[in-house]
Amino acid sequence: xxxxxxxxxxxxxxxxxxxxxxxxxxxxxxxxxxxxxxxxxxxxxxxxxxxxxxxxxxxxxxxxxxxxxxxxxxxxxxxxxxxxxxxxxxxxxxxxxxxxxxxxxxxxxxxxxxxxxxxxxxxxxx
Length: 126
Hints:
By secondary structure, the chain is of the alpha+beta class. The protein has 2 domains: 1-56, no CATH class; 59-125. It contains 4 helices and 3 strands, in the order E-H-E-E-H-H-H. A hairpin with a 4-residue loop joins strand 2 and strand 3 (41-44). Helix 2 packs parallel to helix 4 (108-118). It starts with 13 loop residues before the first strand and ends in an 8-residue tail after the last helix.
């Protein structure tokens, strides 16, 4: 198990299964999550592993990441561009390396930037 420190309180996050955190969501039952109980900050792990997909996020940041996905994902889900190229485009728009361009790594401000970029048709042509 990795040692994951909570960015909000500094406590070590524990490793939990979806069954223990999300008992009402059967599809998450066998997935792993790092979770800070005092802050309720959580990050999911890659399927079949205990490797976190990103950074711990509290409720506010989880909502921001969800809104960013809602703005960005239709670009590739509707076939305008493939997923890899969409992330390359977003990385260029955000002036960051592609390896750092993942919603699960973004903070609140970066999520707002994703939404702004994806809702600005003029950014699509650059």
